[in-house]
Amino acid sequence: MNDEQQKPPYAMIAILFVGAFIAFLNNTLLNVALPTIMTEFQVKPSVVQWLTTGYMLVNGILVPASAFFVQRFSNRKLYITAMLLFTAGTALAALAPEFWVLISARMIQAAGSAMMMPLLMNVMLTAFPIERRGSAMGMFGLVMILAPAIGPTLSGFILEHYEWRVLFEIILPFAIIVLLFAIFKLRNITPNSKVNLDVFSLILSSIGFGALLYGFSTAGDKGWDAPIVYGTIIIGFISLIVFIWRQLKLDEPMLDVRIYKYPMFALSSIISIVVSAAMFSGMILTPLYVQTIRGISPFHSGLLMLPGAIAMAVMSPVTGRLFDKYGARSLAIIGLIITSVATYLMSNLARDSDYYYIMAVYTFRMFGMSMIMMPIMTNGLNQLPMNSNPHGTAMNNTLQQVSGAIGSAIFLTIMNAKMESSAIALTSQATAAGKVPTSTEGLMQFQVELGKNAMLEGINFTFFIATLVTVVALILAFFVKRVDVLKKAKP
């Protein structure tokens, strides 16, 4: 029995990995299909966006509560329930006759997928000793990075040849197979305790994280001065302040914020937030430049980003092994130097920048990022006691979602503001030089070209700001200390 405990349950972890992979893949598959779905169901862009917003909100509500679920229920029951919900949601989405049915299906999917990442991370933290967690978390990074990254490319290919329902139909058989394997092969390895759920904490976290995610995610579309945007953000912040205060008062907190007394976990959270924000900026701005300014198709835009995704996926297991050997500090510093340089190169794009040059720089950037996220997160989690792991993974996953939404909104706002000022400046220069056409056709063409030039300046400026943000993370990385060495040094 002792040998069984020492040997990680690889077959069981493989089942969890495949389930997490298809859940993450499904999330990004749909983004490219939104215009097609909008046309079929005859709904407005603000309405069709709820297919992603609703999914994200359910995640924002359930992920913070995952610490309670992981502690209270066995990993077998929790995973089977999650896969049942995800499979049912996928089947319903594939058959959806009305738009409201499709939204409901996506929310059911989200209820299942929200549990998968925290559950998988907790199983690996339990199954692997501290000196081997880097390799394990590196494999987890492969799933977390590769699935969302290949989603747009795969989706673009499918939509060029088939209808959007095929996006769900190809996922469904895999979901059913994983569910059957889970029912017959999964066993319990994570410790459980009869913790009580504080309902008021759940309400506060649901309102807080849900309102923040919604507010920041819609800011780019509706504008920061829209009451629905700043109203939900204010409500979210107030709810989270009350939530944190309540967690500090409870003997059994739903999400234990006291884990921030561990310095390496606190530092890892700060670096992860900064890097997540910068990473999301690249994932939004790059396709925007390629498709809008260069006029390249969504499918070829996805192909441009694919080598970067593959580089991250290939590097994740390698980075995990390097982490076990050298620790997080040197990896993070090298990775952040590479990311900073690549992001700066992305801030100097031109109207005619070569397709393969952009691909190479983007791939170089993602290669750098592959050396940052998992080592930093794992190092922080390693400092926590075993019974705090559910709280640590729940906190990391929640902050990653929130920082991604906030970062995307802020970077898009910076881009739009720079676009507007650049458009005014370029118009003034053209007027002063007498280069504004007088014919209707010439004026329309002039406005199109001016809009593209203004957007290019906006994208370049935003990448420059992202470079500065990445440099902040680089400075913080010099303060990272190796946790397993710190623990061995203690008497």
Automatic annotation (TrEMBL):
<feature type="transmembrane region" description="Helical">
    <location>
        <begin position="82"/>
        <end position="102"/>
    </location>
</feature>
<keyword id="KW-0813">Transport</keyword>
<feature type="transmembrane region" description="Helical">
    <location>
        <begin position="330"/>
        <end position="349"/>
    </location>
</feature>
<keyword id="KW-0472">Membrane</keyword>
<dbReference type="Pfam" id="PF07690">
    <property type="entry name" value="MFS_1"/>
</dbReference>
<feature type="transmembrane region" description="Helical">
    <location>
        <begin position="12"/>
        <end position="30"/>
    </location>
</feature>
<keyword id="KW-1133">Transmembrane helix</keyword>
<dbReference type="InterPro" id="IPR036259">
    <property type="entry name" value="MFS_trans_sf"/>
</dbReference>
<feature type="transmembrane region" description="Helical">
    <location>
        <begin position="164"/>
        <end position="183"/>
    </location>
</feature>
<dbReference type="InterPro" id="IPR011701">
    <property type="entry name" value="MFS"/>
</dbReference>
<dbReference type="InterPro" id="IPR004638">
    <property type="entry name" value="EmrB-like"/>
</dbReference>
<protein>
    <submittedName>
        <fullName>DHA2 family efflux MFS transporter permease subunit</fullName>
    </submittedName>
</protein>
<dbReference type="InterPro" id="IPR020846">
    <property type="entry name" value="MFS_dom"/>
</dbReference>
<comment type="similarity">
    <text>Belongs to the major facilitator superfamily. EmrB family.</text>
</comment>
<feature type="transmembrane region" description="Helical">
    <location>
        <begin position="140"/>
        <end position="158"/>
    </location>
</feature>
<feature type="transmembrane region" description="Helical">
    <location>
        <begin position="355"/>
        <end position="377"/>
    </location>
</feature>
<feature type="transmembrane region" description="Helical">
    <location>
        <begin position="108"/>
        <end position="128"/>
    </location>
</feature>
<feature type="transmembrane region" description="Helical">
    <location>
        <begin position="228"/>
        <end position="245"/>
    </location>
</feature>
<feature type="transmembrane region" description="Helical">
    <location>
        <begin position="50"/>
        <end position="70"/>
    </location>
</feature>
<feature type="transmembrane region" description="Helical">
    <location>
        <begin position="195"/>
        <end position="216"/>
    </location>
</feature>
<keyword id="KW-1003">Cell membrane</keyword>
<feature type="domain" description="Major facilitator superfamily (MFS) profile">
    <location>
        <begin position="12"/>
        <end position="485"/>
    </location>
</feature>
<feature type="transmembrane region" description="Helical">
    <location>
        <begin position="265"/>
        <end position="290"/>
    </location>
</feature>
<keyword id="KW-0812">Transmembrane</keyword>
<feature type="transmembrane region" description="Helical">
    <location>
        <begin position="459"/>
        <end position="480"/>
    </location>
</feature>
